[in-house]
TrEMBL record, chain A:
It is found in: Cell inner membrane. InterPro entries: ABC_transp_permease, BCAA_transport_permease. The chain crosses the membrane at residues 12-31, 38-59, 65-85, 97-118, 138-161, 193-215, 221-251, 263-282. It comes from the Bacteria. The keyword Transport applies. It is a multi-pass membrane protein. The keyword Transmembrane helix applies. It comes from Marinobacter albus. Signal peptide: none annotated. This is Branched-chain amino acid ABC transporter permease. The lineage of its organism: Bacteria, Pseudomonadati, Pseudomonadota, Gammaproteobacteria, Pseudomonadales. PANTHER family: ABC TRANSPORTER PERMEASE PROTEIN, BRANCHED-CHAIN AMINO ACID TRANSPORT SYSTEM PERMEASE PROTEIN LIVH. Belongs to the binding-protein-dependent transport system permease family. LivHM subfamily. Keywords: Amino-acid transport, Cell membrane, Membrane, Transmembrane, Transmembrane helix, Transport. CDD domains: TM_PBP1_LivH_like.
From TrEMBL, chain B:
It is a multi-pass membrane protein. The keyword Plastid does not apply. This is Branched-chain amino acid ABC transporter permease. CDD domains: TM_PBP1_LivM_like. The keyword Mitochondrion does not apply. Keywords: Cell membrane, Membrane, Transmembrane, Transmembrane helix. It comes from Marinobacter albus. It comes from the Bacteria. The chain crosses the membrane at residues 24-56, 63-89, 95-117, 124-142, 171-192, 222-244, 256-283, 304-324.
Length: 292, 347
């Protein structure tokens, strides 16, 4: 066995997993606060990446201006989706709400195709190009820097949720909605905030992933990999999202490199199936007790 | 206004036909289905067959999702099992179509039971994701098990045949598909008059209460999975006979979502809704095509916008129905009927 090759593949996988962790974090924030499983997260990522393309490519802005603008656009999109389409579904069955997000995903794919066309596109380069070596192992610079930016946002998020007023409100709402409400927390605003923050994380990850692999209207399919991540980690666990994100990213890349690209999805979904049978609520998720 | 609808026995309450008027209209409807292929052109026949297949599959998914409350994102996968079964048997054994379709349904039902096994332990959205996993595995098998499924190239098959008659035209396929669709919807209607169907509904309304009432959850959930996948398998088999080719890409994930959307748009837990939803969702792309064709002389690049517009309309329909008309087309239908039967009074 070629350990250097294995190391390089693993490293690329772990970096990719870091980005998965970021997307999964966005997913978990939304789920924790609002109990909505957001099937449209891949499409929100895609939308932000296309915005970046429009700002940096079409309008020829500096990428470092375009990036925050695109991420801002993605977050606003998340907020608008929550206000217009998720809010009216409050109290409906989870099936219905999930189907709404699937509908939203379809609308976003159509919009993107309508505006930017169906052909795959490349994002303008904005990350440094010098190859990165860790020890002897080579790592593609796009992936390495993408990982660093993603990790920075991740740490910011964790600090925000731990210490800021908004973060505490979010966690309070997640743990007990009624109590949060009676303590004067504006639960509706928290719901909106959760969607904005979740979409923000997803948007940044979207631009970074698209920068490494290109962009097309099918880009949202990455949402399926993220779905695996959050189920394995536990839908309401941030720690779970981080660990499972890194693990699934690694597994996907290693399976793709050693067995061939067609094994990427089955490999991660096999892990998903095993987890569903052994621990249906995920590795770190809360086991909900149901009462009649 | 219609009056005198008091029921005095349970039999009368459970009867499928509550009035002679109903029987009359249904007979007329059947007659229309029979006359339709004689009058319709090739394009309408093609649409009729597509709607028939969609009705069978949607009814199947409605049993599982609408009546038992188990969401499945694996419908396309089960249809694929049916499609490949029909293709393989017709290529390798030359069995007539009733046998291959039955086998397709049974094999799909077996796979459905296998996929349904986690349903006792996981439910709700976790279950949806388990079925999603199943459809990923099934797609993988369709693409990679080349000796049986022909890999990415798929399988081409001979037209359906029975007693020396081959069904190669849409006209003849119509006479397999539509009677089968009527029969299967009718069967589903009858299931919900029995203990089994009522158990499904009890599980949907509250599974824990249902269990306390003495319903064996695992058994009935698996039964629902089996029944639903049987329908999907038969629909997939008809799909294979209709297009005479199956590939892994014939049964994509978007197809599962299409059927879920048809159930929702039609009305969850309502057989009439399943039929309306299936017809409506199948015809929407065709209506859009007609519209594009009409617009092309004025806007030459209208066809370019068709496929994205279709995506947008598809999504908007799902979202719109869920927000504004959660009981779907069936509810609209009932409202219209109520208007006429209560006339001249309102409500």
């Amino acid at each position: 066995m070629d350990w250097l090759f294995f190391g390089e593949i693993s490293l690329a996988g772990l970096a990719m997993g870091g980005l998965y962790a970021l997307i999964a974090l966005g997913f978990v924030i939304i789920y924790k606060a609002t109990r909505v499983i957001n099937f449209a997260i891949g499409e929100i990522m895609m939308f932000a990446a296309y915005l970046f393309l429009a700002f940096a490519g079409g309008l020829e802005m500096s990428p470092w201006v375009a990036l925050p603008l695109a991420v801002l656009g993605g977050s606003i999109l998340g907020g608008v989706i929550e206000k217009v389409m998720i809010r009216p579904m409050l109290g409906e069955s989870p099936i219905s709400v999930v189907m709404v997000t699937i509908g939203v995903a379809s609308i976003l794919v159509g919009l993107v195709e309508l505006i930017w066309g169906a052909d795959p596109q490349l994002l303008p380069r904005f990350l440094p190009r010098e190859p990165v070596f860790i020890g002897e192992m080579y790592l593609a610079p796009k992936i390495a820097y993408g990982f660093l930016i993603g990790a920075a946002l991740l740490i910011l998020y964790l600090l925000y949720f731990r210490f800021s007023r908004g973060g505490v409100a979010l966690r309070a709402t997640a743990s007990d909605q009624a109590a949060a409400y009676s303590m004067g927390i504006n639960v509706r605003r928290v719901f909106n905030l959760a969607w904005v923050f979740g979409s923000l994380a997803a948007s940044l990850a979207g631009v970074l992933v698209a920068a490494t692999g290109g962009l097309s209207p099918q880009f949202g399919a990455i949402g399926l990999s993220v779905l695996v991540v959050v189920i394995v980690g536990g839908l309401d666990s941030i720690l779970g999202a981080l660990i499972a994100g890194v693990f699934i990213g690694w597994l996907e890349t290693v399976a793709g490199a050693y067995l061939g690209g067609e094994y990427r999805m089955p490999a991660t979904f096999a892990v998903l199936a095993v987890i569903l049978v052994i621990r249906p609520y995920g590795l770190f998720g809360t086991h909900e007790i149901e009462r009649v | 206004m219609r009056i005198g609808d008091a029921k005095q026995t349970y039999e009368a309450d459970e009867a499928i036909w509550t009035s002679p008027t109903q029987k009359f209209w249904f007979a007329l409807f059947l007659l229309a289905l029979l006359v339709f292929p004689l009058m319709a052109n090739a394009y309408l026949l093609y649409l009729g067959c597509l709607v028939g297949i969609a009705v069978i599959s949607t009814t199947g998914l409605n049993i599982l999702t609408g009546f038992t409350g188990l969401i499945s994102l694996g419908q396309a996968g089960f249809m694929g099992v049916g499609g490949y079964t029909v293709a393989w048997f017709s290529l390798n054994t030359g069995l007539p179509f009733p046998v291959t379709l039955l086998l397709a349904g049974l094999l799909a039902a077996a796979v459905g039971i296998l996929v349904g096994l986690p349903s006792l332990r996981v439910k709700g959205l976790y279950l949806a994701i388990a079925t999603l996993a199943a459809s990923v595995f099934l797609h993988f098998i369709f693409a990679e098990w080349e000796s049986v499924t022909g890999g990415m190239g798929g399988l081409s098959l001979e037209p359906a045949h029975l007693f020396g008659v081959t069904f190669q035209s849409d006209f003849r396929m119509y006479f397999i598909i539509v009677p089968l669709a009527v029969l299967m919807v009718f069967a589903a209607r009858n299931v919900f008059r029995t203990r089994i169907g009522r158990a499904f509904i009890a599980i949907r309304d509250r599974d824990i209460s249902a269990e306390i009432l003495g319903i064996d959850l695992l058994r009935y959930k698996l039964m629902s999975f089996a029944l639903s996948s049987f329908y999907a398998g038969v629909a997939g088999g008809l799909f294979a006979y209709f297009y005479r080719v199956v590939t892994p890409e014939s049964f994509p994930l978007s197809m599962s979502i299409f059927y879920l959307a048809a159930v929702i748009v039609g009305g969850m837990g309502n057989l009439l809704g399943g039929i309306l939803g299936a017809a409506f969702m199948t015809l929407i792309p065709e209506i859009l095509k007609l519209l594009t064709a009409a617009l092309t002389p004025f806007y030459p690049n209208a066809p370019v916008f068709m496929s994205p517009m279709l995506e947008i309309i598809f999504g908007a329909l799902i979202v719109g129905f869920l927000i504004f008309e959660p009981h779907g087309l069936a509810e609209i239908w009932h409202r219209i009927r109520r208007f006429f039967s209560l006339w001249p009074f309102r409500n």
